[in-house]
Amino acid sequence: MPLVLRLNPAEKIIINGVVIENTGGLAMLAIRNRGNILRQKDILQLDEAATPALRVYYTLQCLYLFPDEIKAYSEALHQFMNDFEQAAPASKPIIDALRARVEKGELYPGLKDAKRLIKFEWDLVGSTTEKGKTLLQGSEGKSKQRAMADGEEVE
Predict the structure, then answer these.
(1) What is the radius of gyration, based on Cα positions, of the chain?
(2) What is the tally of structural domains in the chain?
(3) Residues 93 and 31 in one domain
(4) Mean pLDDT, rounded, for 73-93
(5) Are 37 and 55 in a shared domain?
(6) Where are the beta strands (DSSP E) in the chain?
(7) Is the residue at 85 inside a domain?
(8) Does residue 143 fall inside a structural domain?
């Protein structure tokens, strides 16, 4: 069953590291095989990674989208996770879940755990960036569709 994506005008999506922008009207895309896909609302730019949790998310996103750079992004991701856990020991369950996802190669589902870390940080310090808020909005939305595209079982 293909993953069908609806792209609004000017909306961007990244598929296997390639940025695709809809320059026309409404577009429908059918993704018929496995690919590393992120919609614009889930994409974090480097300059938006302004908090420790957002740096974790950004680095994991890069690891997911650019597997050719696995060594550099893996090292940075583990350092950011270790630093976060050291600064906020109560984050350990979230960090442990994220580490387990990364070790299993479940990078897209790991982004959901990284969003939990952003929420944890927000609750801890009482604020996040605008992009952090955007990432948290609808973080549950398309997870079942995405899991189906990845060939995972869906409840």
Answers:
(1) 16
(2) 2
(3) no
(4) 97
(5) no
(6) 3-7, 12-15, 18-21, 27-31, 37-39
(7) yes
(8) no
The string of pLDDT tens digits covering residues 44-77 is 999 999 999 999 999 999 999 998 899 999 999 9
Residue 7 has pLDDT above 70, yes or no: yes
pLDDT of residue 133: 86
What's the rounded Cα separation, in Å, for the pair 56 and 77? 6
Three-state SS for 51?
coil
Is 56 inside any structural domain? yes
Residue 61 lies in a domain: yes
For residues 27 and 77, membership in a common domain is answered with no
Are 19 and 95 within one domain?
no
Q: What's the domain range around 50? A: 46-136
Q: Please state, as a whole number, how many other Cβ atoms lie within 10 Å of the Cβ of residue 83.
A: 13
- What is the enclosing helix (H) or strand (E) of 132? helix 130-136
Locate tokens 């750079």: which residue? 69
Which is more confidently placed, 148 or 81?
Answer: 81
Taking only the tens place, the pLDDT of each residue in 116-146 is 999 999 999 887 788 888 888 865 444 434 4
Q: Buried (b) or exposed (e) across 55-82, using 16+ Cβ within 10 A? A: bbbbbbbbbbbeeeeeeebeebbeebbe
